[in-house]
Design goal:
Pfam families: ABC_membrane, ABC_tran
Largest sheet: 6 strands, mixed
Keywords: ATP-binding, Cell membrane, Membrane, Nucleotide-binding, Transmembrane, Transmembrane helix
Strand content: 15-25%
Organism: Undibacterium squillarum
Structural class: alpha+beta
Main location: membrane
Protein name: ABC transporter
Length: 752
C-alpha cells in the first residue's frame, strides 16, 4: 500500500501499488491530487476494482473492471451528483449534453465519495470564478489516513468501534445507587471500624503476655493467676466482640449491596426499554442479557464481599502501622521497606488487568450471543441439519474465550506469587532486625513477638489488598459495560414540555420526510397527507422504503429531514408513550409472549375485563379457535407463540390491536405469510379492524389492498405515484408494471 498525498502534502488515501504507479503516469506536471475514491462495483453491480481521482485540474478515472484511463477537465456546465440506495453508492458526472460517466461503489466508501464531491464543488467553483480555494486547517486520521477538518474530533471514515479500557473510577459512579442507603452504610462502616479495632486487641496483649507471664514463668518466677486470667479473658472477650461486630457489619452491608445491585438492574432495564430501535439494531441479545445478568451480579458480589474485605484491610493496615510505630519506630521503618516494590508491581499489573478483563467481557459476550442465536432458532438449526455448524461456532467462541483468559492468567499467575514472596521477605527482614535489637537490649522479647504478630498481619493485609486488584478491575469492567447502556441517549427523545393528547382525529401529514440508516439514504423528500379514517396502501418493490416509512410514522425512528404531523402537530412534540398509545400495530410476524391467550390479547391494556378480551377476539375471528383449545382463553402458548399456527397468532395480534381501540392502524404485510384460506379469515378480521380508523397498510399481494382509498407507490425511497387502483392502472406507470409483474408470477405459479 502507498499513500497518495494532497496538494497540502497530507495523506488522502492509501492505494495499492498498481493504482499508484498508473496514476503517476496520468498526472500532468504540477498537478496535485486532492481526493481518491476506490470504485468497487461495475454497471452490473459486480465486485471489480476501479478508481476515481480528483485533482486541481479535473477528474481522472479508471472505470471498474476496465484497464483504460480517462480524464475530464473542469469546464462550465459540469456537474457531479451523488446518491445512494439499497447499499450502493452512485456518482454521476454530467454536462449540458447529458451523462458523461458514472461510478458505483459499496457504502463502505460512501464517506470518501461525499468528501470527493465536496472538494469537486469547491474546485469547480474556483475554476469558474478564478477565485482560489480557501485553505482549510486539516488533520489526518492516524488510523485510515483520511483528511479531517480541524474541528472534527473523530474521523467519520473510521467506522471501527474503539473499545476504551475501563477506569477504576467508574466504580465511584455507583454512588448514585448507594446514596439512598447512606444510613445503613454509615452503621456498617462504624461496625467495621469497631470490629477492626477488636481484632487488634489480641496482638496488643501479646507483649504483656510474653514479658509478664511467659518469660517470668520460664525463669521459674511466680506469676499472678489473676493477671493470667485477665489476659486470657481479654483474648476471649475481644474474639467474641470481633465476631459480633463482624457479623453485624457483614449482614448490613450485604443487604445494602443486594439492594444496590437490584436498583442497578432495574434502572438499567428501564433505561434499555426507553432506547430507540436504532440502539437494539446494533446490539446482540446475548450481550445485553449478559450485562443485565452476570455483570450486575459481579458488581453485587464485589460490593458485598470484596470491597468490604478491602476496606477492612485498609483499616487494619492503618491501625497496624500506628501500633508498630508506638512499639518501636526503627522496626516500623524496616517493615515499610518492601512497600515501594509492592506498590510498583500493583501499578504495573493493574493496566494489563484493566484491558484484559474488558476484553474477556467482550469475548464472553460472543459465547452468549451464539447461545441467544441458536436456542430461539433451534427449529431452523435442526431443519437445515446445521447442528455441527452451530457446535463449531460455539467451540470457536469458547476457544477464543479460553485464549483470552489464558493470556490474562499468565500475568496474574506471576503477580500474585511475587507479592507473596515480597511480603514473606519483609517478615524475614523484620525478624533479623528484631533479633539484632533484642541482642542489643533495644527492645524486649515481648515487644519483638508483638511486633512480628502485627507485622505478619500487616503484610498479610498487603497481600490481600493486592489480590483485590483483580476483582476490582473485573468489577470496573462490568460497571463500564452497564454505564455504556445508561449513558446512551435515545435517538427518539421525549420533548422537554410534551403536548397532551386528548382526542385525536387521525390526520397524518408527511412534509419533505427523509431518513438515513447510518450513511445509507432510505427515504427522501416524501410528501403525503392522509385524511382521518382514510386507508392508504403502501406498495413498491422490496427495499423501496415502505417499512421504514411505517417505522417513522410509529416513531420507532425520528426523521432525518422534514417532519411528520398528527392533526397539525409535529409528532416529536408529544411524549413517545402517549403518541404510541394511539397506534395499533399488526406485523407480518406477530410476536406472542409466553403466557395465556388472554394475557397476550390484553398486552396493550392489562386491566381489560374478560368480556372486553372476548369481544376483541370475536371481532378478530379468533374466538372460535380459542374455545377449541384445552383451557380456552387460559391456554398457555409457548415462547413466541410456538403452540399456535401462523394464522392463529396473526388473529390474536389483531385482537390485541382491536382491544386498545387505536385511532391509527398500521398493518405491515399482515397476510403475506399465510395460505389463501387463512388469509380470507384474517382479511375478515382486518375489515373489522380498519373501520373508522386511519389505516396505513403494506401488502405484498396487491390484491389485498382493493379496499384502500389510495395507493402510494414508493421506488428507491421516494413517492412516485399516488392514486386509486384504476387510476394508476390507466397511467401505466410504476404501479402498472408492478401489478402486471405480480399477475404474471401468479399465473406461472398457477400453471405449475
Amino acid at each position: 500500500m502507498t499513500t497518495i498525498l494532497s496538494s497540502a502534502g497530507q495523506p488522502v488515501l492509501s492505494l495499492p501499488e498498481r493504482w499508484q504507479s498508473q496514476l503517476k503516469q496520468q498526472l500532468n506536471t504540477g498537478e496535485n491530487v486532492l481526493a481518491v475514491l476506490e470504485v468497487d462495483l461495475d454497471s452490473r453491480l459486480r465486485f471489480v476494482n476501479g478508481v476515481l481521482v480528483l485533482t486541481d485540474q479535473g477528474l481522472i478515472s479508471c472505470p471498474a473492471g476496465e484497464n483504460r484511463w480517462q480524464r475530464t477537465g473542469f469546464r462550465d456546465g459540469l456537474t457531479l451528483s451523488h446518491h445512494d440506495h439499497a447499499g450502493v453508492g452512485h456518482l454521476q458526472l454530467t454536462d449540458q449534453n447529458g451523462l458523461l460517466e458514472s461510478w458505483r461503489f459499496t457504502l463502505g466508501n460512501n464517506l470518501h465519495a461525499i468528501r470527493l464531491l465536496d472538494q469537486f464543488k469547491e474546485q469547480l467553483h474556483s475554476f469558474l470564478t478564478r477565485e482560489p480555494v480557501k485553505a482549510k486547517e486539516q488533520n489526518t486520521c492516524p488510523s485510515c489516513k483520511a483528511v479531517m477538518e480541524a474541528d472534527e474530533e473523530e474521523c467519520p471514515v473510521c467506522t471501527k468501534v474503539v473499545h476504551t479500557p475501563p477506569s477504576t473510577w467508574t466504580l465511584f459512579r455507583l454512588w448514585r445507587f448507594a446514596r439512598p442507603y447512606r444510613l445503613p452504610l454509615f452503621i456498617g462502616f462504624t461496625l467495621m471500624l469497631l470490629g477492626t479495632a477488636a481484632h487488634m486487641i489480641p496482638r496488643y496483649l501479646t507483649k504483656p503476655l510474653t514479658d509478664e507471664v511467659l518469660i517470668p514463668y520460664q525463669n521459674h518466677e511466680s506469676v499472678d493467676p489473676q493477671l493470667v486470667g485477665l489476659y486470657i479473658g481479654g483474648l476471649l472477650g475481644s474474639a467474641v466482640l470481633a465476631w459480633l461486630l463482624s457479623w453485624g457489619k457483614t449482614y448490613i452491608l450485604a443487604l445494602v449491596s443486594e439492594r444496590i445491585g437490584a436498583d442497578l438492574r432495574t434502572t438499567t432495564y428501564e433505561h434499555l426499554l426507553r432506547l430507540s430501535l436504532e440502539y437494539f439494531g446494533g446490539k446482540r441479545t446475548g450481550d445485553l442479557m449478559s450485562r443485565l445478568g452476570s455483570e450486575s451480579d459481579r458488581i453485587c458480589v464485589y460490593l458485598s464481599l470484596h470491597l468490604l474485605d478491602f476496606l477492612t484491610d485498609v483499616l487494619m493496615f492503618v491501625m497496624t502501622a500506628v501500633a508498630l510505630l508506638q512499639i518501636n519506630t526503627k522496626l516500623a521503618l524496616v517493615t515499610l521497606m518492601p512497600l515501594p516494590l509492592i506498590a510498583w508491581a500493583i501499578h504495573l499489573v493493574r493496566d494489563k488487568l484493566r484491558t484484559g478483563f474488558e476484553k474477556i467481557d467482550r469475548v464472553w459476550g460472543e459465547v452468549t450471543n451464539v447461545l441467544s442465536d441458536t436456542i430461539p432458532g433451534i427449529r431452523v438449526v435442526k431443519a437445515f441439519a446445521q447442528e455441527k455448524r452451530e457446535a463449531d461456532r460455539f467451540r470457536e467462541a469458547n476457544r477464543h474465550n479460553l485464549a483470552v483468559n489464558d493470556k490474562l492468567n499468565k500475568v496474574w499467575s506471576l503477580f500474585s506469587p511475587t507479592v507473596s514472596f515480597l511480603t514473606d521477605l519483609g517478615v524475614l527482614v523484620v525478624w533479623a532486625f528484631g533479633i539484632w535489637q533484642v541482642a542489643h537490649d533495644e527492645i524486649t522479647v515481648g515487644a519483638l513477638v508483638a511486633s512480628v504478630a502485627f507485622i505478619s498481619n500487616f503484610y498479610g493485609r498487603i497481600d490481600s489488598m493486592s489480590r483485590i486488584v483483580s476483582v476490582t478491575q473485573k468489577s470496573a469492567s462490568a460497571a463500564k459495560r452497564i454505564f455504556d447502556i445508561l449513558d446512551h441517549v435515545s435517538s427518539v427523545p421525549d420533548p422537554q414540555n410534551p403536548k397532551k393528547i386528548d382526542a385525536i382525529k387521525g390526520e397524518i401529514e408527511l412534509r419533505e420526510v427523509g431518513f438515513r440508516y447510518g450513511n445509507r439514504a432510505v427515504n427522501r423528500g416524501i410528501n403525503l397527507k392522509i385524511q382521518p379514517g382514510e386507508m392508504i396502501g403502501l406498495v413498491g418493490h422490496s427495499g423501496s422504503g415502505k417499512s421504514t416509512l411505517v417505522n417513522l410514522i410509529c416513531r420507532f425512528y425520528d426523521v432525518a429531514e422534514g417532519a411528520i404531523l398528527l392533526d397539525g402537530n409535529d409528532i416529536r412534540s408529544y411524549a413517545v408513550s402517549d403518541y404510541r398509545r394511539n397506534i395499533g400495530l399488526v406485523l407480518q410476524e406477530p410476536f406472542l409472549f409466553f403466557g395465556t391467550i388472554a394475557e397476550n390479547i390484553a398486552y396493550g391494556k392489562p386491566d381489560a375485563t374478560r368480556e372486553e378480551i372476548m369481544a376483541a377476539a370475536r371481532a378478530a375471528h379468533a374466538h372460535e379457535f380459542i374455545l377449541r383449545l384445552p383451557q380456552g382463553y387460559d391456554s398457555m402458548v409457548g415462547e413466541r407463540g410456538q403452540g399456535l399456527s401462523g394464522g392463529e397468532r396473526q388473529r390474536i395480534s389483531i385482537a390485541r390491536a382491536l382491544l386498545i381501540d387505536p385511532k391509527i392502524l398500521i398493518m405491515d404485510e399482515a397476510t403475506s405469510s399465510v395460505d389463501s384460506q387463512t388469509e380470507k379469515e384474517i382479511q375478515k378480521a382486518l375489515d373489522n379492524l380498519v373501520q373508522g380508523r386511519t389505516t396505513i397498510a403494506i401488502a405484498h399481494r396487491l390484491s389485498t389492498l382493493h379496499k384502500a382509498d389510495r395507493l402510494v407507490v414508493l421506488d428507491r425511497g421516494q413517492v412516485v405515484e399516488v392514486g386509486g387502483h384504476d387510476e394508476l392502472m390507466e397511467k401505466q406507470g410504476a404501479y402498472f408494471e408492478l401489478y402486471n409483474a405480480q399477475a404474471r408470477n401468479a399465473a406461472l405459479a398457477g400453471d405449475e
